[in-house]
Amino acid sequence: xxxxxxxxxxxxxxxxxxxxxxxxxxxxxxxxxxxxxxxxxxxxxxxxxxxxxxxxxxxxxxxxxxxxxxxxxxxxxxxxxxxxxxxxxxxxxxxxxxxxxxxxxxxxxxxxxxxxxxxxxxxxxxxxxxxxxxxxxxxxxxxxxxxxxxxxxxxxxxxxxxxxxxxxxxxxxxxxxxxxxxxxxxxxxxxxxxxxxxxxxxxxxxxxxxxxxxxxxxxxxxxxxxxxxxxxxxxxxxxxxxxxxxxxxxxxxxxxxxxxxxxxxxxxxxxxxxxxxxxxxxxxxxxxxxxxxxxxxxxxxxxxxxxxxxxxxxxxxxxxxxxxxxxxxxxxxxxxxxxxxxxxxxxxxxxxxxxxxxxxxxxxxxxxxxxxxxxxxx
Amino acid sequence: xxxxxxxxxxxxxxxxxxxxxxxxxxxxxxxxxxxxxxxxxxxxxxxxxxxxxxxxxxxxxxxxxxxxxxxxxxxxxxxxxxxxxxxxxxxxxxxxxxxxxxxxxxxxxxxxxxxxxxxxxxxxxxxxxxxxxxxxxxxxxxxxxxxxxxxxxxxxxxxxxxxxxxxxxxxxxxxxxxxxxxxxxxxxxxxxxxxxxxxxxxxxxxxxxxxxxxxxxxxxxxxxxxxxxxxxxxxxxxxxxxxxxxxxxxxxxxxxxxxxxxxxxxxxxxxxxxxxxxxxxxxxxxxxxxxxxxxxxxxxxxxxxxxxxxxxxxxxxxxxxxxxxxxxxxxxxxxxxxxxxxxxxxxxxxxxxxxxxxxxxxxxxxxxxxxxxxxxxx
Lengths: 378, 378
Description:
2 copies of one chain form a homodimer.
Chain A lengths: L22 E3 L2 E3 L6 E5 L7 H14 L3 E5 L3 H13 L4 E5 L3 H9 L4 E4 L1 H4 L2 H14 L2 E7 L5 H6 L3 H17 L6 E6 L3 H14 L4 E3 L7 H17 L5 E3 L6 H14 L8 E4 L10 H11 L8 E5 L5 H7 L2 E5 L3 E6 L2 E7 H30 L1
Parallel strand pairs in A: 3-4, 3-10, 4-5, 5-6, 6-7, 7-8, 8-9, 9-10, 11-12, 12-13
Antiparallel strand pairs in A: 1-2, 13-14, 14-15
Helix pairs in contact in A: 1-2, 1-10, 2-3, 3-5, 7-8, 8-9, 9-10, 11-13
């Protein structure tokens, strides 16, 4: 049961230097030049069906397209089956150590599994899981984390990124030998540099789609920066088919951050984009409160409008003019621009409302235009 | 009057593909392979000496090495001269429209000027400013913002980044013709993609050091992501000699974010680095509160320790082992690791304190080792 999300159509991807194979994850295509898919992971106890579903739904509403759940024991696997029935997005089961939990999750409707084959152990059991996933049409992510890499792999390779890639390739081979092909791979380290190197190296050596993430990346502030830097570098090079931002915090924040990264790179956009100045000694209006007001008024807009909220006469008019709707602040007042033209001047207290009205007009026009386009296709 | 900051010695820069010329900004070297310098800008009214100095001091304490102030009128220029006398860091005056304010700021002790020569106008006045800056040993930043780019430049160039670069080069030429050479350049757009392209293009065509920033980048959340993505891409390519993160918020936050970016890339480090997991259904301890507790206990540490705070037995022990000090959580307890060895198991309530003690021991050792090294040099 997959609902449509309110996500605006993605722009075309950056030039894909490393074109990957396309695989299926539930109804989604991952890789092969498809839009980068946004994932997150619940941090509720999976056995708590109600809390977990509530968190999945909140994440979905913020734009999560795939959600991963830890399935560490049999009770979790039973709950997982309950949860998949009601989830608005495809779910991935995160499995460690015990292949039977993987089989149970597949029975329970997992769209995908995330395995660390290194800790599943016996190749015979990995083959069993691959066969079951094949029968169900599910995907398998081979997830290599530097933190849990086998000592053997580290000893043989010339560098840690090399060791991660070798480990991933060996595990992919094991699964592919069973005839299973619906595979994606992730290589994660808490060091941005090692993650970037490992992911690049893998992209040069294998055309399977990659899931990107900086693991153990820290609290909201640190994690946001580390993920933005690491994923930003890779995505800007055309590498990465699905992403998860890892934060020590609620998954909804991870989803917001993932969309901000995609939006910053011009890869995908969800709702309006806000441009505002950092404020300086030239600013003569209370810009942070104006920006917060504008953002909360327009939080429900679906079109990818560009909205500028600027504080002064130096860069203000230029930015405001090139946005769809923009304000350039002056002394207690502001000039309103729509699509490059100044349409009036407003007192501070009326500015946010004036901008909101114009933004909603354009939003309606764009939605109507979109609907006309849809109709003309049918 | 420049105080020493508590910043740990930078690691060597990433391989510098585009080695820039070194220039001087007060006591600092910018470019030529010197460590990337962290800047911010005040958002107080420059005429308010007390408030502005307080903000400069707060920014300095968080790691700002240069602070820029808007000098939009004569009163601000008079205050600026007061402020430079008491500032713990070199100050840059941000000048628009009026060259006389630039001359006043130089008289008032500016270590540098940030000019947009396009809006200063008459080349004769730009020459006057350059000559005065030369006499004072001050630096000039030619700051091109897409939002205030001359129409002419846009019309002639094949793309907006190209137009920004052409505009910067023309303005640099004008200043260099006066014999003045202590120049850095910034090319800023609110679009990450355009900024990255413009900065790369400039680096290919000119060896002057570059100041990086994504302008008008939005509130704390959006701005942090956009700056991390844009500056992360460029710095990872070895481009960028000084940076400012622009946020619609307090400058201290800009400074924190700048340091997080440099730390994520392994370019520079200020104090300990915290590695923590995003928590998932496997986590059996209250990790966010543990992490917050640990961070606040160790906020004053000066050494570049790596501290891991992990929630489970999958990636926990590996990450905790490879950190200087680390915790791997279990059910209501945690295992403590120091330099790769497990040193004990602690109840949840005692974990943060146990980790703090070990971290402080290592911090003291590192500081003592640093002091011995300093002594052996003399």
